[in-house]
Amino acid sequence: MIILDDKTNCSGCHACANACPKNCISMVSDEEGFWYPQVNKEKCIDCGLCEKVCPIIHKWQPDDSRKTTAIAAINLNEEIRLESSSGGIFTLIAEKIIDQGGVVFGAAFSDDFKSVRHICVDNKADLEKLRGSKYVQSKISDTYKHAKEYLDSGRKVLFSGTPCQIGGLYSYLRKPYENLLTQDIICHGVPSPMVWEKYVEKRERKAASEMQRVFFRHKKYGWKSFSMAIEFTNHTKYIRTLLEDPYMRLFLSNSCLRPSCYSCSFKTESRQADISLADFWGVQYTAPKMDDDKGTSLVIIHSEKGVNLIKSISPFIVSQEIDMDVVLRYNPALIQSASKNAHREAVFARISSYDIEDIVNDLFPIKLKSKVKSVLSKIGISNSLIKIKTIMIRRLKRS
Ligand SMILES: Cc1cc2nc3c(=O)[nH]c(=O)nc-3n(C[C@H](O)[C@H](O)[C@H](O)COP(=O)(O)OP(=O)(O)OC[C@H]3O[C@@H](n4cnc5c(N)ncnc54)[C@H](O)[C@@H]3O)c2cc1C
Ligand code: SF4
Ligand code: SF4
Ligand code: SF4
């Protein structure tokens, strides 16, 4: 049975809990708000399946016969592109699967916005729930089991998620399916669901209202200078750039990520997924014609299925081939884990009792900005700082 002596060895993918034939594994939140498997020893029959399906215990070995290629891509539908985090390519590939009678799994907010979990969508209107990055760990629950039921019935399935969630799915399935397509992301890491919940409570208290829409990557001030934007049921709005918003400051300074994200087992150039999606940071230097600051996707294609899927959406995109060296230069998060912030433990020690804004201002008065600055320059968007500073000065003058 699964025994965790080191939390960095568990990404919380839920593969063990989905696979247990006795349903004796519960995913339980620890004091930082991250889920870990807990085995009911009374019910366990010691079959060993949970260990067999763990993608960290049994690491996937990259297949040398697979060739990795990359393109910069933009969805020609401007409305969808503006609602998406990058160039809006996820919606196009998901629509393609739905056109073929398939279903799409991905991350959506709960009704009260306090958490994020994986859901299954079978129509284009509901894809709106999956659109846009949610920078919070998404709970897989029993979606691997549901995906398997669809696959066994012969229905096409697109499963999207972080690389560890895609790794967990493949390990859980334990056999290849022709009707399965997978899409992962270049993954910075996932923040704690508990920190997000505290942030939601703070924003709702301040607005004296409930959230009704949230965008982690609003493009009002541009894609490179993205903002956290929230709409409340009392028609008030909150918008702050990545340097001003306390939640984004914690996320981008690596102060509230899951322990496994600091030594991620899934950071490889070749991936298990058919396609990886990301922001094409550095586009202004390497493919300037593809940059209008409304969002450009980086699409990394790993398999024949991925090649065919991208071919099928080609009438609806503008694209340009990109060398993998360029990808690695501007988006090293493809292969490198985030480094842990020295104040991470202090953040978690205070998060239950103190205001999130006070924690950020107290622990990271100026230093955090330079940390964020270094993350931004690593991902090639440091020029946006000048624009963000101008926005901040204007806002200060108004208040
Ligand atoms: C936690 C996280 C970290 C990321 N880190 C980076 C990074 O370091 N560098 C980079 O270039 N890109 C990163 N991305 C990817 C990027 O933000 C975009 O999601 C990606 O480029 C797809 O954009 P899009 O415009 O095609 O589609 P969008 O509509 O913006 O993306 C939707 C897709 O994101 C998935 N998704 C949204 N939230 C989550 C979540 N919490 N967990 C799992 N899947 C989720 C949906 O299931 C769907 O597949 C990250 C995304 C997430 C969620
Ligand atoms: S050993 Fe088997 S029964 Fe026990 S927890 Fe693991 S999967 Fe479940
Ligand atoms: S990584 Fe996934 S399968 Fe392995 S112990 Fe953690 S939740 Fe279970
Ligand atoms: S950084 Fe690695 S462990 Fe963390 S969520 Fe992303 S893929 Fe999973």
Name a few traits of the molecule.
single chain, binds flavin-adenine dinucleotide, 399 residues, binds iron/sulfur cluster, 13 strands, three-stranded antiparallel beta sheet
Task: Give the biggest beta sheet.
Answer: 8 strands, mixed
Computed Rg: 21 Å
Helix content: 25-40%
Structural class: alpha+beta
Q: State the domain count.
A: 2
**Gross geometry:** globular
**H and E order:** HEEHEHHEEHEHEHEEEHEHEHEHHHHH
Number of helices: 15
Report the span from N to C terminus: 58 Å
Q: Provide the spatial order of strands within the biggest beta sheet.
A: 5-4-6-7-11-12-3-13
Mean pLDDT: 93
Low-confidence stretches at least 5 residues in length (pLDDT < 50)? none
Strand fraction: 15-25%
Number of strands: 13
Ligands present: flavin-adenine dinucleotide, iron/sulfur cluster
If you had to describe this structure to a student in words, what would you say it looks like?
With 399 residues, the protein is an alpha+beta fold. It has two domains: 46 residues, Alpha-Beta Plaits; 340 residues, no CATH class. Helix content is 33%, strand content 19%. The strands form three sheets. It has an eight-stranded mixed sheet with strand order 5-4-6-7-11-12-3-13, sandwiched between helices. Strands 8-9-10 form a three-stranded antiparallel sheet. α8 packs across α13. One iron/sulfur cluster (SF4) binds next to α6.
